[in-house]
Amino acid sequence: MSLVQNFPFFSIIIAMFSGIISSVLSGRKARNLSLFMITVTTALSFFVLCYCQETGESYTYMMGHFPAPWGNEIRAGVLEGLTATLFGLVMFLAVLGGIDHTAADVEPGKLNLFYIMIDLMLSSLLALVYTNDLFTAYVFVEINTIAGCGLIMIRQKKKSMSAAIRYMIMSQLGSGLFLIGLSVLYDVTGHLLMSPAKESVSRILAQGSYEIPMLVILAVISVGLAIKSGLYPFHYWIPDTYGYATPTASAVLSGLVSKGYIFLLIKIFYRVLGNEHVIGSRLINILYWFGIAGMMMGSIHAIAEKDTRRMIAYSSVAQIGYIYMGIGLGTDQGMIAAVFHIFTHSVTKALLFISAVGLYEVSGNKTDYHSLRGSAYRNPLAAAGFTVGSLSMVGFPMLSGFISKLLFAASALDGTDWKMLPTLIALAVSTTLNAIYFLRQVITLYSGPRSGPKKAAEVSSAGNKSSWMLRTSILCLIAFNVFLGVSSQPIVQAIADGLAMFD
Amino acid sequence: MFWETAGHLSANMEATAAVILFGVGFTMLLLHRNLIKKIMGMNIMDTAVYLFLAAKGYIHGRMVPIVADGIQEVTAYINPVPSGLVLTGIVVSVSTTALMLALTKRLYEQYGSLDLDEILILAKEEEEKAV
Description:
Chain A has 22 helices and two strands. Chain A is mostly helical. Chain A folds into two domains: 1-275, no CATH class; 282-503, no CATH class. Chain B has helices spanning 2-11, 13-31, 35-57, 80-111, 116-130. In chain B, α1 (2-11) packs across α2 (13-31), α2 (13-31) runs antiparallel to α3 and α3 packs antiparallel against α4 (80-111). The longest helix of chain B is centred in the C-terminal third of the chain and has 32 residues, at 80-111. Chain B is elongated and about 70 Å long.
């Protein structure tokens, strides 16, 4: 066994231990440790990605001393490596960009707690990506929920407490459903590891027994994870949660946490329930229609929203809708498009939340639509970041959002069934709606007085200028976005390879 | 048909009870306005899952999976895995309950109410006042 094969386990355990160590460190040290840890785990994930691409196959890694049907396992392939690397990068840039605001929003003595939550969050996301065991996945889903709740409530201002309790309630509904789904699955198949469970599932399906329980399992697990990732009818907690947390927390929650659950769902579809069975059931159409409803309703709510952070949050609802629509198409291309959109949305949403911060800094820390008038002249780089993010969400060529829209449209055209027309119409309408609210915001940024309101000028002269860390983070995220948009082919190929390895 | 279904249900009595309890807990967590009752609902929901798992792990006429009297055959004991899952689940549910109770306490201190709807209205009013 080569050394690289240990890396998925190392990255999970390093992240978890830095969380534990941070509990006795001061805020600054915990912050530096956290940044260092994210760099290390991202590098490790990148090595895993390279290793899997070189060997061209996935591998499983035994945890503890019991072999396959009983023990616990980690599994790594191209898609796992790629997702873990990307999550690490986005996490790093989100933490780096929001450093000053985190320090300002969190009580001084409690700063290390924030970074404990970040460490735990990364550890649980990596575990969700890498694990091959369903019950381990459940435990890390709960750790993820607790860490997410901590990230929201640590800013003890305004509505963050009530936002946290709503988040917690919806998350608990989701994890309850997920847990009972797992229990029924264990009862029917007798396995918790994904590969042996899949063998039992295919045997059961071939015999045609347990038809209703299999459908219930599929429904309950999908709905549970859909609630947790904020699919349209269950999205009520999203705007408050993302709108009132500190910028880093918003970027992490919207860019990564919901994506971790969707990744787990895709993994369960492919590696446990069998994708043919999932596509064969009518449930996939429900995900498809809810996805489309989310694309429309998220954008319509966003148009009506005055506060920019809540607007970006509602835009997340729409983007989650895109991903579920891709999954609901039920073709391989649709799934590739959905996974690519997971990446696009992580990068772009982090960019939007972080660069919006740069604009608030020069507008007297106001977040509503009108106060940002003309702020582009006061902080050009942040405005450029916001513009790139907006254009990417709208689907401007050369940016990552364009590629995902292209992939969605192409996969809709390839599928010969009735889903072609609704998908194309939904894409067109949703793009228009996206353009309305994002471009309206961008135009507002570049219009109005160059000097800005007096009050804001006073604030910015009081030394509230963006730090180099915020600027670096925005620059890196812009570069990342353009990279995904310009050279998407290797990434798309890696996703296709990774999905093929899932079977 | 009815008697057949009833027969199936009573043969799987524990599973039936677990699903009913799960439904009760889920509805309470989703719809009840009082935060403490919501947390109770969450606990009922989790306990229902443990009942389901424990019932499915039990094999009639076998012993607790602790080696006693030197009996080594696996056929003498019940399936230990669901018990392990229940233990793990209890740990998870205790920690989420603790977190939610702490949050509820903070909210009660801030708004003087346990009614979630009222808290949300108060929070909104507070925000409008600040703007």
